[in-house]
Every structure is written in structure tokens, then in C-alpha cells.
Design a protein that fits this description.
This protein is α+β, with helices and mostly antiparallel strands and 155 residues long. It has one domain: OB fold (Dihydrolipoamide Acetyltransferase, E2P), CATH 2.40.50. Helices cover 15% and strands 32% of the residues. It contains 2 helices and 5 strands. A 5-stranded antiparallel beta sheet has the order 3-2-1-4-5. A hairpin with a 5-residue loop joins strand 1 and strand 2. The radius of gyration is 17 Å and the shape is globular.
């Protein structure tokens, strides 16, 4: 199994965002498959923030725009824990992940086709990594449905 790590997955685009007013809009922009620190399969989902933060920190002179910031969320692909990824998939597609054994490349292609480009409303919170370091976590998310053009009432 080869894992491709793109140039823009880490580094300067990963930063701690304010969570005083924790609501952000973001687009799911990429998905990667890999292994956790313990060697278990996982999916890493990259969200890109599309809204500007409006909390009290935004008034600071040195405040950096949140638009374009990256939020990373991981989902275990172990059989007993894949329900979390299934919840995300179901919120976007309205369907469950297909049951059965799916080759890795096919599974990733299916996830990308169904999820990349979906827009979300995210509520973020502070959490701890397995190394006890501060990290952002998604506490709750909702899919933002695209508005249909020309759907207004005629008078």
C-alpha cells in the first residue's frame, strides 16, 4: 500500500483557529487513506474553511483571515469504528457506505466522488492528540445544501 502525501496537506496551512465563536463554514476538499500510529487503517479528511471568523479575536490588529485555513479530521477504517465515516457519508449522500470488502483504490475513489466538494457548517472545539497536544476537533457538522437557482416565487 502506497500513501500519497500531497505538498499542501500540512505545514503553514494547519493552524489553531479560534473557537470562542466556534461556527465555521468549510468545504471538504480532499481525502487520504493511510495508517494510524498503531498501524490501523484510517481515512484523513481535509476541510478548507470558506467563512471568516467573527468572534472577538477577529478584532485584533494581527488577526489572520480564517478563509483558506485547513481542518483535518481522521476516521478509523476498522470494522468496529467505521460507523463514524459512515455517518459523514450518509449525511452527504443520504445512503450508507456499501457493505462488503472493497479494494482500497476503489474505496478511496468512491469516497472522493461522493464527498469532495460538499459544503459543511462545522462547530469546532479544543481537544487533545494522542500525544496530549492541543488540537482542533470537529464537535458537530451539518451539510450545507446548495441553493437552487431560480427557485423563488413569481409574482
Amino acid at each position: 500500500m502506497n500513501i500519497k502525501v500531497p505538498e499542501n496537506v500540512g505545514g503553514s496551512d494547519l493552524r489553531m483557529l479560534p473557537v470562542t465563536n466556534p461556527l465555521y463554514e468549510a468545504q471538504l476538499t480532499d481525502i487520504f487513506l493511510g495508517k494510524s500510529g498503531t498501524g490501523n487503517p484510517k481515512a484523513t479528511v481535509k476541510f478548507t474553511v470558506t467563512s471568516e471568523y467573527t468572534g472577538p479575536e477577529a478584532k485584533a490588529k494581527d488577526f489572520e483571515s480564517t478563509v483558506g485555513a485547513t481542518i483535518i479530521e481522521t476516521y478509523s477504517l476498522q470494522e468496529q469504528a467505521i460507523w463514524k465515516l459512515n455517518d459523514l457519508y450518509k449525511k452527504v449522500t443520504g445512503e450508507r457506505l456499501p457493505a462488503g470488502e472493497i479494494p482500497e483504490e476503489q474505496f478511496l475513489a468512491m469516497l472522493k466522488k461522493a464527498l469532495v466538494g460538499a459544503n459543511f457548517s462545522l462547530i469546532l472545539k479544543w481537544g487533545k492528540s494522542n500525544k496530549n497536544e492541543d488540537r482542533l476537533e470537529i464537535e458537530k457538522y451539518e451539510v450545507i445544501e446548495k441553493k437552487k437557482l431560480g427557485g423563488g416565487r413569481k409574482r
